[in-house]
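Lecture 7 notes: from sequence to structure.
We start with the chain below.
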Amino acid sequence: MQIINSLIEQSFEYTEEKENLAVRRDEIGDLMEIIAYCQDDVVKEPLEYREDLWEMCVEEGITFTDWLYGGGTGSDDDRRRMLEALSKKALIKSDRDWPVHETSNLKNINVTLGEFRSGASTVEEYVQDRRNILSSIKNVTDYEAFMQSCFINSRFAKGILSEMKHISNFSDNTKEITKALGVLNDYAVKLYQQYSAQLEEAMRILSARLQRECAPDPKHSKDLIFTFTYSENIEGDTTAKTKDIECSPHLKLLHPGSNLRIYFYWCDDVIEGGKKVLVGRIGRHPY
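Predicted structure tokens for the same chain:
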């Protein structure tokens, strides 16, 4: 799956309600968050735009280029953030015809500065657009390849695809799997930090958010050991490491008697500094 992140230049244009970029500081911050997401090591996608952006008037008589270099109203911090984003090449020139025509392997996500028609203006909206695309992928191999970039606060076990290939009616369950992975990605680490001494409560909250049962599986702990990779920096050299983690808590998807589950562990201090939920298995119960 290839994503074209298209910046809608017209969303920068001033209006009576948004007469200059000084009154759009929060929107600039939201755009920077989207750019940061696109720059994440798991995603690594540019945000494309046309040359029109440079000459777009962001306030009366002031083009975007003028503003970047000190013209008009606005803070030096806002200009610095925007210039920093440009210097990192999160935005790249594109002569692509607009809008992009989607195919099964090419999807377009519109990104805007502030609310604008048919575009994502916050990182939450942007991520949801990615997850909607993920939910539409019916081939399990393609799904696994793209899911990494939709859940950047998650780390998936080595070989997780091998079990996913055994999911019955996979194409009918992509929305269910995506929703569950989204809840884990967005809440698991925070819940662990808050309830590390009371994990039953953390599981209860996950269950309530997803409206699916979350429970431990101690009887099968020996079958729930999964290998995760991580990087370790020793005296400036980065070394690839692996660690085995027991992923006993699981979400029972669809209904309590379903054989579709997600086994996970809240986080591990060694792997990604304890900042990511660890997903060990998506698929069947290990009978």
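Points to note: The radius of gyration is 22 Å. The chain has a mean pLDDT of 92.
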